[in-house]
Amino acid sequence: MHPMDELIDSLVVELRRGTLILSVLSQLKRPRYGYSLVQRMEEKNVDIEPGTLYPLLRRLEKQGLLTSQWDTSESRPRKFYVLSDQGKMVYERLKSEWDSISKQLDLLMVEDDGHE
Amino acid sequence: MNDMELVERYLDVMAEHLPEKIRDDVIDEMRGNIMDMLPDQPTGQDIRTVLEKLGDPASLAGSYRRDKNYLIGPAVYDSYVSVLKTAVVIAAVVYAFIALMSFLLKGDGPIDFATGSIVNFLADLAGEVIIAAFEGAVFACVWVTVTFAIIERTGISTGNPLGRKKWTADDLLLPSAGDKSRISRTETTIGIFFSVFFTALLLAKPDLFGWYERVDGVIVLKEPVLNKDQLYRYAFVIAAFAAVQFALAVYKFIIRHWNIPAAVFNAVYNAALAVFVFILSRDMKLINPGFISLVAQKTGWSDAKALTNYQNFAAGFTVIFIIFCAVDSVFGFVLSRRQKPTVKSILT
Q1: pLDDT surpassing 50 at residue B160
Q2: Using CB atoms, which residue from B25, B53, B64 is nearest to A55?
Q3: Which fold has domain A3-109?
């Protein structure tokens, strides 16, 4: 691999990491279990490793953003996660932060292109 | 091997690396996740693919317990390094000094400077001193690390009082030379030095305090001052005082400025120490009767007179000691009340 590609890859990973929590919170307005969330992300072409997502769910729960419940009614017991009230609030705040970041960046990059 | 057994093995390895509190729940959930990821009639290859996608079970388990994974966290790391350096140097010097003293007083016979034994003598001496310095350094490393690991684990460092408050521009002004409330690190260091020194000396080599005489060119111990058996009854308390004093010094290193909790801590410590010194001074069993007799014999006093003189000396020492403790305690409170400069007060 070209050495620049490696650098680009690591920068992309870093860029995505920042948006990961926002992506996860956005999909948990209704309860989902681990793998269903992975599938959901895949459908939407969001690239997230299951090995990253599963521990993240638990961490968000510990931070009080999610609540969880075991559902034993199906053939196999599954743990469902959903946004808590606090999580909903945090999600709204993060979302508006994201909107303003993305607007700022658009502006910065358009300006820059204009000068070239 | 049955292919499903591979999944169980994966989960076993994960379980080994998980804290007990969350272990069962995480494993049950992960088993469900893995089953969900597999097709209905999975082949061995399917299972391998899924497990490899999840990656090393130990590191997967590690990401479930990421928050408290340091022994010494970044919040106190700088203080840790500076206390560690100071304590290692102090302990090495103290231990080396004690080794030197006890080697010189051991009295293996007169040094025969004429023959080559001076070389052996110096080699032995250097050997013992170096080993002792090393022991002291290791001892200091262990204690400083344990102390900071406790600070890290108990969360004292995250919320105050030890941790840093939210940064304000005022913080830029704090460590200025003219600021009187600043705790002098030199003084703290000297404090640690003497406390380590006397504790180590008292507990490890109580016989160094004694009446020595030169007999045929060899220094020999005639009578130690202290009664070792009685002294060792207090060993635990003496060690506890040293430990608390050490903790207080570490605390001062971290906060850097006197504040009310530090002043209270300091005053309580001083009060307890004063009481302890008072008790020691009144305990006649602590003094070796042989030493009193020896003093009487050498001075021509009667035994009773020597004992009374000792009691007077001990009482006088205790009074001075208590005055020092009181002054030091008050000092802490006065300095902690002193206003720190603020940006506003400088700008206006």
Answers
A1: no
A2: B64
A3: Arc Repressor Mutant, subunit A (1.10.10)
